[in-house]
TrEMBL record, chains A, B:
Record Pfam families: TetR_N (PF00440)
Protein source organism: Pontivivens marinum
PROSITE patterns: HTH_TETR_2 (PS50977)
Domain HTH tetR-type: 11-71
UniProt keyword list: DNA-binding, Transcription, Transcription regulation
Protein name according to UniProt: Transcriptional regulator, TetR family
DNA sequence: CTAAAACTTTGCATGGTGTGCAATATTTGC
DNA sequence: GCAAATATTGCACACCATGCAAAGTTTTAG
């Protein structure tokens, strides 16, 4: 077997704790929920809760799905227009995110109302941004350019999730398309010499 | 007088607490410093510390200088190329930031090693981003475009501060120029139909 | 100038947070 | 099965953050 029973149980417990955290946070706001309540809801001791997550905000955020190696390689080695290759990369990643649909929706609410949680997410996003910057450095020479592209790209994901959370009838993919259009139009405007 | 004695003393105390926090954090890492130590170093009681800031991370971040109303108005009403008007806006803001030079340098270190602190800063930055988005909505029709521009702009500030913190011989203004160049080049690359 | 109103500082009590440690229980590889 | 590795748990402890009430300071107005 590829993963041991132990490993699977660990993942399982971590997920149960995250779900318990998000559900309680959804009902009472995370700040009004104690770690004790979360642990009880997840069926573990308080101490075990802290063996999995250092605090309830980290439990709410969990471990966001990472970029796929294959997608990163495809982006770094791509030969199409840069914008198209990045968009394809984003589409693939958004697809992965969509699989955790309910978790992400609940998380969105928590993060908008909890600074500590948003800081923890920001930490993950920063790592992703750096990862993407390194990857894009293989397509563009200047590191600042790569960093700017990576920043624009990850914040498009952020805006897409925001839109999707606030517009009930929008699919995650459609929200990404809107955010992406906005990014492309912004790029055009920034390169324009004179006003509209 | 424009501000009362009370108000001036409040600002003063807040600043003393922030400085005490940053100095202690600089020596021992913020997480190893207790609120009690910070309060003692700032010459106030622990309870008073909490009357000013809800936690030590907030004390480290303090209250970042806001955008100037005049600059926002100039940007919203500007008639030059959008890129030029935004750059001018940024230059003015960076000038304000430069006035708190030592504070920002110390803060940078704290924020890079403390998730809670970076979440609090992220909260301020989000407010600035939203402010800028509203402002740019007067120059561009599509809100997603404005949001994308605002995101790219504020993250250029972030990258400039990062560069300035890591390259000893770089002025804050020069760092902004580098980050800005990166953004412009990224914009060109995103609008290019085929590969370089 | 003074007295009441408004606000600030402080100590104390209290309950939640997060870690180290040691005992107990479970899984794994042999 | 059994020993090694890993997980879970209770307990103790230090720190964090808030409410409250008493004491002190600044402001305002007569």
């Amino acid at each position: 077997m590829t993963v041991s029973l132990r490993e699977r149980r660990r993942q399982q417990t971590a997920r149960e704790i995250q779900l318990a955290t998000l559900e309680l946070a959804h009902q009472h706001e995370l700040e009004n929920v104690t770690t004790e309540e979360i642990a009880a809801a997840a069926g573990v001791s308080t101490r075990t809760f802290f063996n999995y997550f250092t605090n309830k905000e980290a439990a709410a955020v969990g471990a966001p799905p990472p970029f796929r190696e294959e997608d990163k390689n495809a982006l770094a080695a791509g030969t199409g227009a840069l914008a198209d290759d990045i968009k394809q990369f984003l589409d693939r990643h958004i697809e992965d995110l969509g699989k955790d649909d309910p978790i992400i929706k609940m998380m969105g609410r928590v993060i908008r109302s909890n600074e500590k949680a948003s800081g923890i997410l920001e930490g993950f996003l920063k790592m992703e941004r750096d990862e993407l910057t390194d990857c894009l450095c293989k397509r563009v020479q200047n590191r600042q350019t790569a960093a700017s592209l990576a920043g624009a790209t990850t914040s498009a994901i952020g805006r897409a999730i925001y839109l999707w959370n606030h517009e009930p009838d929008l699919s995650l993919g459609a929200a990404l398309d809107m955010a992406w259009e906005g990014l492309l139009e912004a790029s055009v405007l920034l390169t324009l010499p004179a006003r509209d």
